[in-house]
Design a protein that fits this description.
This protein is an alpha/beta fold. It is globular and about 80 Å long. The C terminus is likely disordered. The longest helix has 33 residues. The chain has three domains: 117 residues, 2-Layer Sandwich (Nucleotidyltransferase, domain 5), CATH 3.30.420; 91 residues; 143 residues, no CATH class. The strands form two sheets. Strands 3-2-1-4-5-6 form a six-stranded mixed sheet.
């Protein structure tokens, strides 16, 4: 079959696309460069279809340029794959890297069927994912702004003692009453306070938008199911749905765990078997969310009032899975701590198991399958 297929590799950059075309029947590779512009991509598609004279398969590595090229070529009738760059084979002895070599290497690996395809999100899925990541960026900026303010006030020995919890309503009201005698300190304080107020407003606006989207199709049902779990509320639930978008690509819970980098690394040879820390590969946004949710399960199993309200009207089978997850994760955490494991390692371990329960809830075949324990 591969003898009658033309394989094409792209090395995509902001301004240009390096093309390497491997014609069938072992003919010489054809290489050229095209501008990364809409009209140029149309010309590229016409040339590829004209010169292939048969089946045509193209590919490029996922990167900062996103999926625009794949969508444009697909609309023009050219089959294009997006490849996972971290899983692209690399020659250890190769010390020369150029755009031409990269494009040709992709074409050759594509012909040898040695590349791993990435499932591109739709434009709607990507828009929601960008909004969730925007919220994460704003949250990080807000944390930094608060740190700058707290360290500035500490140097001035201005300490808030009204409550134990910082950055609450009373703390913010106290901040707005502060003033300084010298002009420089007042200007610094005003700049920090304005930044905090602005970032809090931006975060509230994004949260409101995500909450509204979570009540609409096709996110309404999976978000509501995920909110039945302890430690997962609206923002975390819709972020998980947005980042993973298609659970059908994960054939088993272990596949999802491996994709999120929550499985132990291993370096074994012969009779020697060595396991290390988790691989930390794949989607680090989802991995962080699941670890944060796993921290809630270190406490004894209980159904709080907010959790009880989130579960109202949801299927009993989903609630049963969430309850089983809560009990199992707490037992697992308690056993690991009793064995002397640090709490951080124990939480990562139960985050891996929480991933399995999430798969069973959101995968089309998950609710039909019997839950098996994951070590």
């Amino acid at each position: 079959m591969s003898e009658i297929i033309t394989h094409v590799g792209f090395d995509v950059h902001k301004r240009a696309i390096q093309v390497a075309m491997l014609p069938p029947n072992g003919r010489d590779v054809v290489e050229w460069q095209e501008p990364n512009e809409r009209d140029a991509i149309r010309r590229l598609a016409r040339r590829l279809l004209r010169e292939s004279r048969g089946d045509l398969t193209c590919c490029y590595e996922a990167g900062p340029t996103g999926y625009a090229l794949q969508r444009q070529l697909g609309a023009l009738g050219v089959h294009c794959l997006v490849i996972a760059p971290s899983l692209t084979p690399v020659k250890p002895g190769s010390r020369i890297k150029t755009d031409r070599r990269d494009a040709r290497k992709l074409a050759e690996l594509l012909r040898a069927d040695l590349l791993t395809e990435v499932r591109p999100p739709t434009e709607t899925e990507e828009a929601l994912r960008d909004l969730c990541r925007c919220r994460e960026d704003v949250q990080q900026d807000l944390t930094r702004a608060r740190h700058r303010m707290s360290k500035f006030l500490l140097r001035r020995h201005c300490l808030f003692t009204g409550t134990k919890r910082a950055w609450g309503t009373r703390h913010m009201a106290w901040l707005h009453t502060l003033s300084f005698d010298d002009r420089a300190s007042q200007a610094t304080f005003d700049a920090y306070l304005i930044a905090i107020d602005e970032l809090e407003q931006r975060l509230e606006h994004i949260d409101a938008t995500l909450a509204e989207l979570a009540t609409q199709e096709p996110y309404k049902e999976p978000v509501a199911w995920l909110r039945c779990f302890r430690g997962i509320d609206t923002v975390t639930a819709i972020s998980l749905v947005a980042e993973l978008h298609d659970f059908r690509r994960f054939g088993s819970p272990r596949a999802l765990m491996g994709y999120l980098g929550l499985v132990p690394s291993e370096n074994s040879s012969g009779e020697s078997r060595r396991r290390g820390s988790i691989t930390c590969t794949g989607n680090n946004h989802v991995r962080r969310l699941l670890v944060e949710a796993a921290w809630h399960n270190r406490h004894r199993p209980a159904v709080s009032l907010p959790l009880k309200r989130r579960r109202e009207g949801q299927p009993q089978r989903v609630i049963a899975i969430a309850d089983r997850a809560q009990n199992r994760l707490h037992r697992r955490y308690t056993r690991l701590i009793a064995r002397g494991k640090p709490s951080t390692k124990a939480v990562v371990a139960i985050a891996r198991e929480l991933t399995g329960f999430v798969w069973f809830v959101l995968h089309p075949n998950g609710l039909k399958a019997q839950i098996q324990p994951h070590s």
